[in-house]
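hey
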């Protein structure tokens, strides 16, 4: 009996354990009946985008002009469509690191080319005084250089035997023509007149003036010396004679330069030459009177290059330059030959060009990068090609369109963060999703580290 009861108890216990196991096996799991955390979590809407124009966004639901609802953009969706390297920064961080932006606009860039000019004489205003007869200088009226002379002013008296013989010849011809002027023979009168004209012309060839010839006719006396007169206005810069010296025909006696019209030479660098053309106006400013400004136009650009030697860190270096020339009046002779002046030449660097501030362009040495503000705390690095520079702006040839906003301050911090994220995405796509979701990142922790663009953060 005891064995029977013990066996029955064991059997019942086995049945109970088996039933419990079957119930546990077929019982619905508590976890499977409840929605998962992934399912329960809703997608976070970042902003709303116009269905017909993705560039138009709104932080709240709204309708476009056609009455269509704006499409919500979720964080996961935006991450899939954004350009690699795009970073998200919260408004608090944007204000904290001092991000500033400016819109790219179309404008005409102007720049000022500054150089140093040198005042020189006008080559067309240089005159040389000489004689066509030989002789001796008996009296010198202009006996020093830097004297101002005027047309008709006496320069020197010269004694010339050849000139005396020519005067005698003319007086004989003059008296002969006077004697036969009433002759009944036309041939005689014509011959005498021809001799007189030939003698007169010979005097003129020797630079004897009409007044001197008239005095010779009236007085009938041969002058022992001939006076040489100035026929131009200017300053005597060179004097080659003294009293008593013998001179030869054609020998230079004086050099006279008219300073009432001068040239100013300037030199510009080779890369500035495309912006310069004949006729452009410039300001000529003497260093001793900055308030006195002259205006002149470029009248010549020289066809050959020169070099300028300058000292740079204890070494001599050369720069290739082109010479330009200005011409303008100097009636009061305030500008002296050899004087240095400041030259300012305003030129158009680019016309109707898309421009951004020069602080927005980060130059790596091999390429240029700007940070584009896409709105809603999104910033995208973009490579651009720059052209001319002027007025603290760069011409953008490609990469940025007019109307897009570029970062002008703290762009190095944003670029550092962008380069770091791009590098992480390339190494570990799974980890990049976690880093990309961190909106608090600003790049401050990477400042000072060299980025993948080769730009160092500041």
């Amino acid at each position: 009996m005891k064995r029977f009861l013990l066996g029955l108890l064991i059997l019942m216990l086995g049945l109970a354990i088996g039933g419990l196991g079957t119930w546990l096996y077929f019982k619905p799991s508590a976890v499977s009946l409840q929605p998962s955390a992934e399912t329960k979590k809703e997608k976070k809407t970042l902003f709303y985008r116009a269905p017909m124009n993705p560039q138009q966004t709104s932080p709240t639901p709204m309708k476009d002009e056609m009455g269509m609802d704006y499409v919500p953009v979720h964080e996961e969706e935006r991450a899939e469509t954004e350009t690699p390297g795009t970073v998200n920064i919260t408004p608090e961080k944007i204000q904290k690191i001092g991000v500033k932006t400016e819109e790219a606009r179309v404008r005409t860039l102007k720049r000022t080319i500054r150089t140093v000019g040198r005042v020189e004489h006008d080559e067309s205003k240089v005159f040389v005084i000489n004689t066509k007869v030989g002789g001796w200088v008996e009296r010198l009226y202009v006996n020093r250089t830097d004297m101002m002379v005027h047309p008709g002013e006496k320069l020197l008296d010269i004694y010339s035997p050849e000139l005396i013989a020519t005067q005698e010849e003319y007086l004989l011809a003059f008296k002969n023509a006077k004697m036969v002027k009433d002759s009944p023979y036309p041939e005689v009168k014509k011959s005498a007149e021809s001799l007189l004209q030939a003698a007169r012309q010979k005097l003129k060839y020797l630079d004897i003036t009409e007044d001197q010839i008239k005095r010779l006719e009236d007085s009938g006396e041969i002058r022992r010396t001939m006076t040489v007169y100035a026929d131009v206005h200017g300053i005597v810069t060179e004097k080659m004679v003294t009293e008593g010296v013998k001179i030869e025909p054609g020998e230079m006696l004086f050099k006279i330069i008219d300073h009432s019209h001068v040239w100013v030479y300037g030199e510009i660098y080779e890369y500035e030459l495309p912006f310069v053309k004949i006729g452009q106006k410039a300001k000529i400013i003497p260093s001793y009177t900055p308030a006195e400004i002259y205006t002149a136009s470029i009248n010549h650009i020289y066809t050959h290059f020169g070099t300028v030697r300058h000292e740079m860190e204890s070494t001599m270096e050369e720069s290739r330059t082109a010479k330009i020339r200005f011409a303008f009046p100097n009636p009061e002779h305030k500008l002296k030959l050899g004087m240095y002046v400041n030259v300012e030449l305003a030129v158009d660097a680019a016309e109707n060009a898309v421009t951004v501030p020069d602080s927005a362009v980060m130059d790596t040495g091999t390429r240029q990068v700007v940070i584009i503000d896409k709105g809603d705390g999104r910033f995208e690095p973009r490579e651009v090609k720059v052209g001319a520079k002027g007025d603290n702006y760069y011409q953008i040839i490609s990469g940025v369109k007019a109307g897009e906003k570029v970062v002008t301050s703290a762009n190095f911090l944003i670029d550092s963060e962008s380069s770091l994220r791009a590098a992480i995405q390339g190494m570990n796509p799974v980890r990049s999703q976690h880093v990309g979701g961190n909106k608090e990142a600003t790049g401050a922790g990477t400042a000072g580290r060299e980025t993948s663009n080769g730009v160092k953060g500041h």
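The longest strand covers residues 294-312. The CA atoms of residues 185 and 191 lie 10 Å apart.
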